[in-house]
């Protein structure tokens, strides 16, 4: 007497690859990178680069001078306070031993 096959032992028909969700999950990462690369290339080709001024060096020197002057002015009170704290005042009583 031969055993009767159980329903779980029946062969399962294989589904096509595109019907599995994990396949699309694996494909979506590289596909997103390709789309982003194409979009970046399109933006780079269609948008113009800004024109640099002819006298950019002179303007940069002027900006640096202006910033240096502002920086020196903004630190003046801090430098005075630091110098005042570093020098002892003679009118204070001497500390007790």
Characterization of this structure:
- The protein is mostly helical and 97 residues long.
- Among the domains are: 18-49; 50-82.
- Helix content is 59%, strand content 0%.
- The protein is built from two helices and no strands.
- It has helices at residues 21-46, 56-86.
Shape descriptor reads: elongated
Strand content: under 5%
Estimate the mean pLDDT confidence. Answer: 79
Number of helices: 2
- The helix/strand class is mainly alpha
As residue ranges, the low-confidence spans are none
Which labels suit this protein?
97 residues, mainly alpha, 2 helices, 0% strand
Helix and strand arrangement:
Blueprint: H1 21-46, H2 56-86
Short précis:
The protein is mainly α and 97 residues long.
